[in-house]
Write a structure and sequence with these properties.
Blueprint (H helix, E strand, L loop, with lengths): L1 H5 L6 E3 L19 E3 L3 H14 L4 H11 L5 H17 L5 E4 L3 H13 L3 E5 L2 H6 L3 H10 L3 E3 L2 H10 L7 E3 L21 E6 L8 H13 L4 E6 L5 H10 L6 E5 L3 H10 L2 E3 L15 H8 L4 E4 L14 E4 L4 H12 L2 H18 L2 H15 L14 E9 L7 H10 L4 E8 L7 H7 L3 E2 L3 H10 L1 H13 L6 H20 L2 E6 L2 H13 L3 E6 L7 H8 L4 E4 L2 H4 L6 E3 L5 H11 L5 H18 L5
Parallel strand pairs: 1-2, 3-4, 4-5, 5-6, 7-8, 7-10, 8-9, 10-11, 11-12, 13-14, 13-16, 14-15, 16-17, 17-18, 18-19
Length: 615
């Protein structure tokens, strides 16, 4: 994706599910395009209900897949996810979408294509369609619907062709690429001590760490001097550590756990031999084309691995490293021993591996066939007007539905009735509440921040900015409560790109908690703010008084806050008992001109503020 962006492609990135960990690859922060996540399933069910009313629900395809593949394949859930992304992609003028991995994401693509008419392609690896998808009939249906299928190795292509013979003409090999900026031309190490062996991978059976540890035990018996570091974490960690201890290898073999990308690259540059004993586990899972092998070769390190899947397409036996049969500990030990005692051979293999990567696996070369396939597959479609061309007003909602804001849905409807361009953003969805019919109608217009794991990852990825915000809070005379600040600052860093993408010029905070977030946003984004402060706010009055000086205006239910603040600050009739009564009367069809005038006055203020820019 980074390479495509550098070539000028405009991307819309959609993620059906949030990640399971807050750890992020450093590349993710370099993407210009924001990542859009599907809203909560409870909200997607509202999308389903609405689609059925409009006649856009792909019911026949859902029923067919339920009958053909069974309930375990969750066709209705695939369709619900597809509804959201069909709307997102269509409004953004997307003319082609690409799915990485031939698994449930590719299954969702079938529904997305039927709903939107947008063609798709996918990248298949091997593990995804052989094990994860788990149904060759469904695989054939997905391949038949795709414009093309990229495979990361010839090995993967052969496996896919065997399963999908009617789609052979659509299958193209597109190697994974390495950004050589991460691996400047290596300098030979003058190291003369014990041989340093490195292995990197998730601690799961098919990575072959059992075999590597057994090989290390045999190397000790041969009186060879070495250290072995294993980078990665996973469910096998405790068992592998027990095995290391039982072989009395604690002084030689170390499980380092997960490390940042830069630390892994430094380990590769510092090692003498890179080893990966890939194998097939009891469930049939295996490596196909491990990227870490390419990274080791880019660092000019010799590789010892196995003759498995697509590995021989990167490591040339006897030229860039040594390959042995999978699960053959004796052969693996022999390969390691030979390189350990021959530094000249290590350097020869390492240099050849670097040349191999430069010639065949540099990202600027491997991206070319994918780029050509995408360009050839893009069809001329009538483009819808691009979103976010006009300045918009963001309504910042701390959590929703919210008993403390009983008339929020009514307010949003009043603004839309007056054609005010509003983007309501929910920072946290309250999944414990059932949605009323009015809330269901509003849910289709709301933007939802991703789940807490994504928000935490965004916070961790911007530690310099996060520290600056904390320092500014520490130096302030009046401070928002620490717990409120930490929560709202995480929301703010996640919101930043979304506001820029949607060309937001003004943010209105719908509660005191959201006001904390708006204040933080104003420190990091060029925008103006306003706020509604409810009768019993969750932040101290003194902090609120000071923070209101940074607002263009707002709605305040405490008359002490309104004094000497000018006509842009309104007494909030929505929060008053009288206002609640008037709203009830309007819902019952009883006219209330004063209440309608209040909404008109408020909407005019919002429009005026959206056209102003901060100094």
């Amino acid at each position: 994706m980074l390479a495509l962006e550098k070539l000028g492609f405009s991307l819309e990135i959609g993620s059906i599910y949030p990640p399971l960990s807050s750890l992020r690859h450093a590349y993710a922060s370099q993407l210009r395009a924001p990542i859009r996540y599907a809203p909560p399933q409870q909200v997607l069910r509202v999308w389903e209900k609405n689609a059925k009313m409009r006649g856009t629900w792909p019911g026949s395809l859902v029923d067919l897949h339920e009958e053909k593949y069974g309930w375990r394949y969750k066709p209705a859930q695939r369709a619900r996810n597809a509804l959201y992304f069909a709307e997102l992609f269509s409004q953004a003028g997307v003319d082609h979408f690409h799915v990485h991995f031939a698994n449930r994401a590719a299954h969702t693509a079938l529904f997305l294509k039927q709903i939107s008419g947008i063609p798709f392609s996918m990248t298949a690896h091997g593990q995804d369609f052989m094990v994860d998808l788990g149904n060759d009939d469904l695989l054939r249906e997905i391949c038949a619907a795709a414009q093309f299928i990229a495979v990361e190795t010839d090995y993967s292509g052969q496996l896919l062709a065997q399963r999908c013979p009617d789609s052979v003409s659509k299958i193209y090999r597109v190697f994974n690429g390495i950004d050589l900026e991460d691996f400047p031309a290596p300098v030979p190490s003058p190291h003369h001590g014990p041989a340093r062996i490195l292995s990197v991978g998730r601690l799961v059976p098919f990575k072959g760490f059992d075999q590597l540890i057994d090989a290390c035990a045999e190397l000790v018996r041969r009186n060879l001097d070495f250290t072995c570091e294993i980078v990665g974490d996973g469910p096998e960690r405790d068992r592998l550590q027990t095995k290391i201890d039982s072989h009395q290898l604690k002084s030689r073999v170390a499980l380092l756990g997960s490390l940042p990308r830069e630390a892994v690259f430094e380990k590769m540059r510092a090692c003498d031999i890179f080893a990966l004993a890939s194998m097939v586990d009891r469930n049939g899972a295996s490596d196909v084309f491990p990227t870490v092998i390419l990274e080791a070769m880019a660092a000019a390190r010799p590789v010892v691995s196995t003759q498995l899947a697509g590995i021989p397409e990167s490591v040339v036996h006897g030229e860039t490293g040594m390959l042995v049969p999978p699960s053959n500990t004796t052969a693996f030990t022999e390969a390691l021993a030979r390189l350990m005692v021959d530094p000249v051979l290590r350097q020869q293999y390492g240099n050849a591996g670097r040349a191999q990567v430069e010639q065949n696996f540099a990202i600027d070369k491997t991206i070319t066939p994918l780029m050509q396939l995408l360009q050839a597959s893009a069809v001329a479609r009538e483009k819808l007007p691009q979103r976010h061309q006009v300045k918009q007003i963001a309504y910042l909602i701390d959590h929703w539905p919210d008993n403390a804001l009983p008339l929020l849905e009514r307010e949003l409807n009043e603004m839309r009735r007056r054609n005010i361009s509003i983007l309501p953003i929910v920072c946290e969805f309250n999944s414990e509440r059932d949605l009323t019919p009015e809330q269901e109608a509003i849910a289709l217009t709301l933007e939802f921040l991703p789940d807490a794991m994504v928000i935490e990852a965004t916070w961790k990825a911007q530690q310099t900015l996060a520290q600056r915000l904390e320092d500014e809070r520490a130096s302030a005379e009046e401070r928002a409560p620490a717990a409120v600040f930490l929560r709202q600052s995480r929301f703010a860093l996640t919101l930043r790109n979304l506001l820029v993408e949607n060309n937001i010029s003004h943010v209105h905070a719908t509660s005191a908690r959201a006001f904390v977030c708006a204040i933080i946003l104003q420190q990091i984004v060029d925008l103006t703010i306003s706020a509604t402060i409810e009768p019993c706010p969750a932040v101290p009055l003194d902090w609120t008084k000071g923070a209101l000086r940074r607002c263009l205006g707002g709605r305040l239910s405490d008359r002490r806050l309104i004094r000497r603040r000018g006509s842009s600050f309104l007494f909030d009739k929505v929060a008053s008992k009288k206002g609640l009564l008037q709203s009830f009367q309007e819902k019952m069809g009883i006219e209330s001109s004063g209440y309608k005038n209040f909404w008109q006055e408020w909407s005019e203020l919002l429009v005026r503020w959206s056209r102003e820019r901060p100094e």
